[in-house]
Amino acid sequence: MKKSLLALAVLSAFASAASAQSSVTLSGMLDAALQHTGTATGSDWALNGAGSAFNNFTLSGKEDLGGGMNAFFTMNHRFRIQNGTINSADNAAGVPTFYRNIFVGLGGAFGDVRLGRILMPLQEWNGAYDPWYGGYTVASTHTGGLAATVRANQAIYYRSPSMGGLTVHAAIAAGANQLQAETANDYGSRAPAPAALTQRPEGFAVTYAAGPLKVTAAYDKNYAAEKTTGLYGQYNFGVAILNMQYESGDGTFNGNLSTGAEKVKAFSISADIPFGAFLGKVGYLRYDSDRALKDAHKFGVGGEYAFSKRTLIYADVAKSGGDRISLSGLGAAAYAGGDKSVFDLGLRHKF
What CATH number belongs to 31-350? Predict the structure, then answer.
């Protein structure tokens, strides 16, 4: 009897230790906004989620393997708050439930390696240099990544540890089975269907962060062999955070490879200006193309008020102009010429 009790105590101790070394977390957010947006024939009101990434839930976990090693996973699903459907850039049959990110990895003193469907390096970093977190709300002045791969299927992703403030991220993915919509830029350019070209998506980013300064240089080649480079910077002055984004890359004119390629440059400058619980945001965005009727610009201003660390309200206004003015945050419908003004008022809650 005593031996049985001793064995049970030992097993309980091992079980407790194993439990303490691993964890699974459920997190996410919900975001809804009343938006007044322009269309080709006028303007209308709608209740939408402010951005594709801002209605989601994530299952994540981490296990301590000992010796400085750990195993981890992430399963991220995003949805449309207005109707509960999957929020995907490609609504064709077979869109994955965990569309946004799903991967498993190993980490240690070497950094970490991730395997699965993953946000590629250029797109992972560029949103960090935008007051609207990479494209949520109508006022976002995020450059958008041009034709860079957004997320890649069957990807291998490496992230280095910080080396005196310097970090390196690099990724490569399979050439087949990539989603066409994952290479769309902000005004309709898109790589040809996967059957036409199947280059391996690949990319890397080098970031240096020290004190108030952070800069990133990034490169991406999508599965249609279209290349995008990006340079991003941020400086915290205390009273405000100044952000800069610059991208240059390839495109396909109006999404049709047969009509010829284009070269696109995008630039934005923006700032976060805190006032206690209120955070002001302002930014300017410009696109320039070497093809006719493809230039565009946008000015955005807004702010958010935090009731707590998890709940805030926000309001934004923006005005766009140029030849083709469906820019980041303004919806999928593009139309030529004229100016376009938009407004939103929203509520966001994290859990």
Answer: 2.40.160.10
The residue behind tokens 């990034």 is 218
Distance CA 253, CA 251 (A): 6
Three-state secondary structure along 97-155? Answer: CCCCEEEEEEEECCEEEEEEEEECHHHHHHHHHCCCCCCCCCCCCCCCCCCCCCEEEEE
What pLDDT is attached to residue 272? 96
190-234 tens-digit pLDDT = 555 555 557 899 999 999 999 999 999 999 998 888 899 999 999
- Alpha carbon 83 to its chain centroid, in Å, reads 22
pLDDT tens digits, one per residue of 273-285: 999 999 999 999 9
DSSP conformation letters of 326-341: --TTS-S---BSSEEE
> In one letter, which amino acid is 2?
K
Global pTM? 0.83
Question: Among 47, 54, 80, 31, which Cα is nearest to 348's?
Answer: 31
List phi, psi (to 5°) of 58.
Answer: -130, 130
Over residues 99-115, the pLDDT tens digits come to: 788 999 999 999 999 99
Query: Could you tell me if 58 and 26 are in contact, meaning their C-beta atoms sit under 8 angstroms apart?
Result: yes
Q: Where are the domains of the chain?
A: 31-350
